[in-house]
Design brief:
The protein has about 210 residues and is of the alpha+beta class. Helix content is about 55%, strand content about 10%. The structure holds zinc ion. The site of zinc ion (ZN) has 8 residues, from loops.
């Protein structure tokens, strides 16, 4: 498998479609694609047409279509679940490249794992997607800054809307920590007029 194919937007698109289908079923997925007018984009992903990219605009429209179909609250809950599901599919595709699956890594203290995991996960986005992530840390928090966020691309909203990213990080943290739950919250969103999307993670787990 070539490096280009590995990191193609198609692969990311495929992960999102798989995550969506797992959460809302085949019928739900078809409805979302229809509302977002994304049938052709999805067809390109499924048939593996590498030259046709699954654009930021397509990702944003998928996210918005979830809200239109299921309402803002329902759509939010589903997007969180889709994000969690996407992490599992993403791990299958990219897990070995994260370098976090070796036994030695699993034996590290939690704080070290969080630091290394955040850096490694951000590096994956920066290397293989057009989405740019910057991680900042304090003693108690991790700030996950998304400089070019596909989820809210071109959107305008009153409150943060990048729920899929929140779900993705929740699941990443759950996996990284061996089953702990963390508080994860989007505190700034480009769609709301903020400069970038920022997700705040509390380092101390809730459970
Ligand atoms: Zn965003």
């Amino acid at each position: 498998m070539s490096t280009a194919a590995f990191g193609s937007p198609q692969k990311m698109g495929r992960i999102i479609l798989l995550g969506l289908e797992e959460v809302i079923g085949r019928g739900g997925l078809e409805a979302v694609l229809q509302v977002g007018e994304l049938e052709e984009a999805a067809q390109n992903v499924r048939s593996g047409l590498e030259e046709r990219t699954f654009s930021f605009e397509a990702v944003s429209r998928l996210h918005q279509a979830l809200e239109e179909l299921y309402g803002p609250r329902g759509g939010r809950g589903l997007a969180l679940r889709v994000g969690r599901s996407c992490f599992k599919y993403g791990l299958k595709e990219y897990g070995s490249m994260l370098g976090l699956t070796e036994t030695a890594f699993r034996l590290l203290p939690l704080s070290t794992k969080l630091h290394a995991g955040a850096g490694s996960f951000a590096g994956l986005f920066n290397k293989y997607t057009d989405q740019q992530v910057r991680v900042a840390e304090t003693d108690s928090e991790i700030l996950w800054h998304i400089e070019r966020c596909p989820l809210c691309w071109g959107r305008v909203a009153d409150e943060p809307v990048c729920h899929l990213a929140v779900g993705l990080l929740q699941e990443a943290l759950y996996w990284l920590s061996g089953g702990k739950v963390f508080q994860v919250e989007e505190i700034a969103c480009h769609a709301r007029g903020d400069e970038r999307c920022t997700i705040l993670i509390q380092k101390k787990p809730l459970t």
